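Sorry, explain these tokens?

___
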Amino acid sequence: MSFRAIFFDIDGTLLGRDKRMPPSTLHALKKARENGVLLFVATGRVTPMTYFLRDYFDFDGFAAMTGQYCFDKNGKVLHTLAIDPEDIRLLMQLQKEEPFPCLIAEGRECFAATPAKQIEDHFLRHNLPSPPVYDISRADCHEVYQLMV
């Protein structure tokens, strides 16, 4: 049995300049699905910044955070590649010495290493609430998949 799949980026591929999915793109997705092709989103975005796509189309899965966290349309995790928790501890130590804007992304949640207007503005542009400040105790029980500085 063979599978065919297509992976799509979001900005400039699935969404036009107006940040909406053009009718032609939606039509093409439906035609591909009718022909048995599996359809995935592949993006550098953190997971919460992909959920809105479900309002447009029922994708088969997502490769979020540049492939660090992949899941199917039902939320089943297919692949992960976490950052070493010691690296997260080092980052947080650096934040104490000289804070800088940094987003810490777990599988389905995001945090700011310290409060930062740049992060708040970024989430606001995506109509999402600002992420809470990261608690280092999470490093022992929640894997981190992406850091955005």
Q: What stands out?
A: The first helix runs from residue 23 to 34. Residues 61 and 73 are 5 Å apart (CA to CA).
